[in-house]
């Protein structure tokens, strides 16, 4: 049966993107907490219906543990709404956009506990688990649904308190893609060089599955270092930044914190020529992810403690929010 607005009780706003808002909602008939995404579009009913029908193929994605569950879509007036699995950790950018070594005062530390929390970045085994989950999610979309994601970036990688990593916002509806004016590309682009130049028009327009592999590599570096990988001077001018992506060497993982294997894996995503990039199968076969796979199946104590890592990351984030609020409250007020 169809979801509708009357059955949804609105909670807090979870975030805002370029095209709409995501709100936490309670589906009252079932008691399931969901994330409701609202996309404002000026479209006629025929187009809106086409979008709802295309989104409905998402009902088949429930079988991947690396794709957020889809509960249904509907429209009200000219807004498209869809309900997806609520991920209590939000998107990865919110969790990890912290500088390595940053400190904040701990919230309510016990007397024998550290008074200060230090951000120690993402350990390699956690990074490998994130990368592996993303590759499996992307491969599932392509193999099972014939879908290219088209918007791989840290805000579209979600995490929950069990440490599960899932992708959202993939390009499942051609009509929706067409209707969302891609005029605002934002000041940080994850687009592969060939999308910027318009070269290599093979599969779908300028977009090939390997364009997602580029965005994946860039996202993994951002997650590892806690910031967008291209230098900030490029932010001021979007054209300068696009030029940098096309002309300069691709960014790399910091070699002092990650193994040659990890660095090599990321480098194999960030090859400038699209057909030179690794495929999903190759990325999964690579030593960096094979070691993670072995840990996932090991009987002994060699598991990756994702839930433990997420708990520490939440703790740091909560302490940082309180710290920043306190700082803002005590900041001197300038007249005028
Ligand atoms: P863009 O508009 O460029 O795609 P975005 O991905 O940040 O940017 P939205 O997709 O609208 O924009 O999402 C806004 C924010 O809502 C995200 O950054 C994320 O933090 C949060 N969010 C999205 N989906 C969920 C979800 N299923 N569970 C919890 N939080 C979510
Ligand atoms: Mg998004």
UniProtKB/TrEMBL annotation:
Residues 8-289 form the Protein kinase domain. Belongs to the protein kinase superfamily. STE Ser/Thr protein kinase family. MAP kinase kinase subfamily. It comes from Collybiopsis confluens. GO terms for biological process: cellular hyperosmotic response; p38MAPK cascade. GO terms for cellular component: cytoplasm; protein-containing complex. The chain holds residues 174 to 509 of 522 of the full protein. Its EC number is 2.7.12.2. Signal peptide: none annotated. ATP binds at residue 37. This is mitogen-activated protein kinase kinase. It comes from the Eukaryota. One of its GO terms (molecular function) is protein serine/threonine kinase activity. Keywords: ATP-binding, Kinase, Nucleotide-binding, Phosphoprotein, Serine/threonine-protein kinase, Transferase.
């Amino acid at each position: 049966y169809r979801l509708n607005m009357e059955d949804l009780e609105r909670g807090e706003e979870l975030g805002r993107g370029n095209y709409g808002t995501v709100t936490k909602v309670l589906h009252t008939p079932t008691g399931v907490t969901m994330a409701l995404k609202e996309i404002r579009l000026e479209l006629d009913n025929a187009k809106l219906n086409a979008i709802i029908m295309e989104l409905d193929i998402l009902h088949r994605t429930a079988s991947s543990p690396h794709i957020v569950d889809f509960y249904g879509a509907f429209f009200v007036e000219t807004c498209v709404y869809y309900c997806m699995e609520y991920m209590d950790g939000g998107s990865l950018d919110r969790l990890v956009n912290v500088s390595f070594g940053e400190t904040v005062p701990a919230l309510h530390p016990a007397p024998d506990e550290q008074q200060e929390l230090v951000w120690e970045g993402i350990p390699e085994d956690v990074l490998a688990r994130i990368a592996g989950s993303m590759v499996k999610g992307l491969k599932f979309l392509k193999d099972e649904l014939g879908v290219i994601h088209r918007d791989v970036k840290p805000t579209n990688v979600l995490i929950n308190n069990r440490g599960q990593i899932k992708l959202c916002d993939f390009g499942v509806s051609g009509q929706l893609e067409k209707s969302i004016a891609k005029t605002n590309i934002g000041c940080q682009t994850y687009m592969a060089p060939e999308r910027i130049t318009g070269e290599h028009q093979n599969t779908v327009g300028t977009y090939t599955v390997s364009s997602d592999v580029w965005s994946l590599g860039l996202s993994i570096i951002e997650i590892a270092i806690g910031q967008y990988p291209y230098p900030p001077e490029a932010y001021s001018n979007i054209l300068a930044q696009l030029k940098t992506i096309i002309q300069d060497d691709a960014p790399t993982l910091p070699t002092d914190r990650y193994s040659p294997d990890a660095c090599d894996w990321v480098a194999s995503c960030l090859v400038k020529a699209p057909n030179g990039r690794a495929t999903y199968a190759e990325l999964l076969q690579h030593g960096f992810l094979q070691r993670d796979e072995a840990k996932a199946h090991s009987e002994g104590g060699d598991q990756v403690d994702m839930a433990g890592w997420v708990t520490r990351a939440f703790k740091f984030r909560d302490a940082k929010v309180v710290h920043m609020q306190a700082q803002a409250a005590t900041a001197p007020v300038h007249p005028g």
